[in-house]
Each structure stands twice: as structure tokens, then as C-alpha cells.
Amino acid sequence: MSGGRHRRRIRIALPVSAAGVAVAVAAALLTSSAEAATPLPQPTVKPATSAPSVAELEQRIATAIAGDDTAGKTPAKSSYSAGTTEQGIDPKIIGGTTTTITAAPWMAQLWYGDDKGTPDTADDVGFFCGGVVVAPTKILTAAHCVAGYDWYNHGSVITSTAQLPTVDEQGYITDLHGGAISGVWRQWHHSSYVPSTLDSDIAVLTLPNAVTATPIRMTTAGDTTSYTAGTSAKVYGWGRTSSTNDNISETLKTATLPLQSDTTCANAYGSDFVKGHMVCAGTPATGSDAGTTTACNGDSGGPLIVNNRIVGIVSWGVVDCVAAGAYGVFTKVTSYVGAAYPRLDDTNFDGDHRGDLWLRSASTGTGYSRYSRGTSFAAGENWGSWAGVNTVVQADLDRDGYQDLVYRRSSDGDVFWAHYSASRNTWITQLLADNWKTRTRMAIPGDVTGDYLPDLLSVDSAGALWIYPGKGNGTFAARVQVGTGWNQYDWIRGHGDFTGDGRTDLIARNASNGYVYLYKGTGKAGTGAFAGRIKIATWSSSAYNTVATVGDVSGDGRADLLARTPSGILYLYRGTGNATGSLFTARVSVGTYFKGYDILA
Questions:
Q1: Given the residues 6, 144, 189, 190, the one annotated as active site
Q2: Across residues 250-270, what is the average pLDDT?
Q3: How far apart are CA 301 and CA 163, in angstroms?
Q4: Is 353 a catalytic residue?
Q5: Which of 18, 58, 184, 459 could form a disulfide with 151 if both were Cys (CB 3.0 to 4.6 A apart)?
Q6: Contact 496/502 with Cβ under 8 angstroms?
């Protein structure tokens, strides 16, 4: 791929080896302005107002453009990451074609530029990777582009443009070509990532503000159809256009590649290819640009797409990309979606990747947040009086990275959505549902229907469970009934994926016998939304009088559960993500002072 007059060098080494409203009222949710029940504190972490300036972000890009480093470079194997480009080369992925941002609106440019704070450019670190928007504030990419780097202080992300920035002879950015520039708030890479082998090469960057780029979804766990040998997949990126020079492209390229079998990949690469964790694609390279179609350096972190779903992430290949018989190697997304999906729904009050707790004092009606420290909770904020409220649920209905609260007013059953507006630096409260007094249960476990948007569940007085599919902006599509008989449960809880398959699950307790059941999510709406229940525990009300699910409390990427005894001891059950074994580890006490709270959310 190619582009501009300002030289952007790449020196890359690659491995040679190869409910509705109350039933009598309506069947849809309402959305309108409403006064907040109580003044709410500003979020402790405000990345939108403390984010680096455009000038700082552009300076990071300029440093990246001038750099010649390789992200995640290792002696044994290197990646398809790159430094930068030079204009004037025939624009293409090797063997690919030019495409537009309209055709691939989810593509993102990841620029990393660290000048080390010195005038000497010799110690600068600069490189480029691709990425893909999978939620309004989330970028999926390769772990080798993220691990070991400080993206908060040195990273810039550009979305909504097919062109790389234009720079002048002095290296200053002169044109973003309509692209939106952003910093990075948080970063995550898979805990099993191995730099020397590029195994488990998957990562997620969280942006401080939602972008307007249209997201694309990852494939689901257990997907085998998309990986059938011979299936046509499309790869996208700004990487090298030729094996004979180090320049990457100024414009976005794409190529169609046939997926290969594990046997073919292993024959080509031996033990370097990890079956189940990697997939390779393309036809055997010819040894030169002629007759070869492949991803190359600079394409790292970009997507491999089948049927409008991400099935792979550009990871690694051979030196200069065209060695005879070689294929491009990609992270096999179906094997990692269970770990990556929780990062799309990891919002919490203090922004540290760990699920926090919201509580209300039974005696004073005062609300409090407490911040998770992994195995304990630290003091958070005083949220003022929350008297007159009988239900509170944490959620991020608009996927903007800030934790919202959904609550029900006791007097009339009205349900409200309190959400923080970063652009206005204030809380906004909207009416979601009118007169839900008869609703016996309510939960917002995340994306139930498989579209990456949070959904709302409620149980009506007749025991019917309803899904309200979220639209990602605090409004909902028409409700869909899941089933009946849900009034047997005294609580239903959920926040994320308990089984590690990338789908949102639900947990419920039978009021009469204390049996606790797991309902595995299927990613579908209606009666097929959950698989048949599985008993996972017996917890009578004398054992635990309340349970809370606030997401990933421990910070390991798995959904956890909190359970309180009548005496006030709060226990953490850490999720294992193991669908066939024990769902949680042995309980650990995270405090003994929780008796005085009547709401834990």
C-alpha cells in the first residue's frame, strides 16, 4: 500500500520459518426528559474533559510517522506491524485493491508515538497498526500492537477516513481527510498473550469518547462454519504494497483471501502455527509480488471478515510477506471472543477495568459507590439521598464508557435512566418506563440479542420475562417475550458472560428451594434467548439475602458474582469462564460491613 511525499520508513523483521410498560398501559418503553431524583456526583474519571488536545494527538502521530519501530518485535517471530509510508507507490495490499471508508466504516488507524521527552530522536518509539471499531468506544486490534506500550500517554486513533494523515516536509500534520482523532483511555490485551510466539494475539483499546464510526461485530464463540477451508474472507489495511520496499499505503486497501485448513497452515509453519488459536488465509505466495495476494507489514491489528463478522485479526507472517508457499496468519477470533467481549462492557465508576459496587444505606437512604480493588472495595463517592427508590441497576445503555444508573421510583413505579453527558459535563435523567409498579424483577445484563447493544429484561406480575432490545441510545425496540414462569425466582441477575462464550448470560434463584440456575445466553431474541437452565448452587435466603452482578470485579476479564449473608459478609465468587466445569472459584470475603445496605447494585 502507498502514499505522500513525507517518507515514512518501516524496518520490519518477520519469522523466516515458517413488558412493556405496565400491561394495562402500553407495550413499549417511553423516553422523555425528567428531573433527576437527586443531584448526582460527577464521575471520578472524566477522560473526555481531560483527554489530550488535538495538537498533542497530532504530535504523537508525527512522532509515529517519523519512527521506524516494529510493534511487539521479538527475536523468534515478528508481526505485520509497521513504521510508516512514502507516497508515489502503486497503491494496493499486495495483490489487493483500493476501497473506501463507506465500504469499511469500522476501520481505524492506530498511531503510537513516544518521543521519550528528549530532543534526541534516536530514542523515539513510533509505529502504526490497524484496528477495527467494535463498539462506540472500543477498538479491536492485535496484542502485539498494545502489550508493553502506554497508549494513554502516547497513542492516537483515527476513524472515519480511508486516508492516512497528510504531513508536510517538516513532519507536521496538515490534513486528516475528514477523519476523527482520539486519544486512548484504557488498554487491554489477552492475559495469555505470548510475545515470542504471538499466541493469543488480541487486544482492545477503550477511547475516551464515543466515535461515530459504524461498529462491526466479532464472530461468536464456537463458530466453525466461517472457518471452513475455501471460505472467502476479506482483509483490510494500510500495510505494505510490495515486498521490495518498506512503504505502507496512504489509502485503505482490501483483498479477498480463501481460508485454509489447520493442516495446510501447520504444514506451512510447523509448530509456529497454534491450532485453535490461529487461522491462516490466502493462496500460497509465489515468492514475489506477482501472483501473490496477502496482508503485509502495516496491516497488523486489522480484521479478516466473513459474512460481515470479524473472524481473524492480522497477526504475523514471513519476511517480506511473499516467500514461496507462505500464508498470512491471523488470530482466530472465535477462540477469544469470550475474553474480548467483556472488554466491550467493562464500564465502571472509576475507569480501572474492575466492576464497582453501588449501595444504599437502609437507615439514611444515602447512595454510595465503592470501588473494586480486586478482592476488596475502597470508599468511592457519596451520591446523596436516594430515598423513594426501590430498584437500582448499573448499566451503560449508550455504550459511551461511562457507567449509568437505571432506577425505579417507589411512588409511581416510573423507571429512569441517569447517564453522564461528557460533552455537557453533567448528568441527564430520562424517563424509560411509566408505571412499572407491577414489574417484579428488572435486569440489564448486557447484550442479550447479539447486536453488541445493552438490553433490558423485566418480569411482569404474571411471571412473563420480556426483553427490550436496546438501540444504544437509551431507547428500545418493541419488547419480545422470552417465556413464562419467571415469578418462581426471587431475583434474576446478570452482567456479562459467565461461561466464556462471548454471550450474555442470566442467573436466577428459586424462591422456594434456593436453587440457583444459570441461563446461558444464545445471542438470539424471543423464546430462544437462553438455553435450558442449569443448576449451579443451592443458596437459601438464610445463606445469602441478596446477590449482585456488577461485571468483572477482579479485573481478569471474566464476569463475577457478589453474594451477601444476612450478617453482612459480602463474598466474591470469581468467574472462571468455564462452561463445562465450575462456574465460579471458591468464595472470598470482600468485607463484613454490608448489613446496613438495602440496595446493592
A1: 144
A2: 91
A3: 17
A4: no
A5: 184
A6: no
Give the mean model confidence (pLDDT) for residues 77-98.
Answer: 46
Annotated catalytic residue, options 78, 79, 243, 300 = 300
Apex 372 CA angle, 510 and 343, nearest 5: 80
Contacts of 161 (CB under 8 A, 6+ apart): 101, 109, 176, 177, 178, 179, 180
Task: Give residue 581's pLDDT band: very low, low, confident or very high (50, 70, 90).
Answer: confident
List, in order, residues 6 or more apart from 271 with CB less than 8 Å away: none
| Residue with the three cell numbers 490466502 | 282
Q: Does residue 203 contact residue 145 with C-beta atoms inside 8 Å?
A: yes
Sheet with 546-548: strands ordered across: 546-548, 561-564, 570-573, 588-591
Give CA–CA dist 55/173, Å, rounded. Answer: 9
| Per-residue pLDDT reduced to its tens digit, 433-471 | 999 999 999 999 999 998 888 999 999 999 999 999 999
pLDDT for position 560: 95
Across the chain, what does the average pLDDT equal?
85
* Pairing assessment for the beta strands 366-372 and 377-385 based on DSSP bridges: antiparallel
Q: Which cell goes with 206?
A: 477503550
Dihedral sign of CA atoms 202, 162, 450, 550 in order: positive
Q: For 176-274, list the strands marked E by DSSP.
A: 180-182, 186-189, 203-206, 217-218, 232-237, 253-258
Amino acid at 524: K
3-state secondary structure of 138: strand
Of 549, 518, 167, 207, which is closest to residue 344 (Cα–Cα)? 207
Query: How many Cα neighbours within 13 Å face the side chain of 54?
Result: 9
Q: How far apart are CA 320 and CA 297, in angstroms?
A: 8
Model confidence at 272: pLDDT above 70: yes
Mark whether 201 is an active-site residue: yes
**Grid coordinates representing 291?**
501472483
Q: Residue type for 162, please?
A: A
Q: Is 189 a catalytic residue?
A: no
Query: Residue 479: what residue type?
Result: R
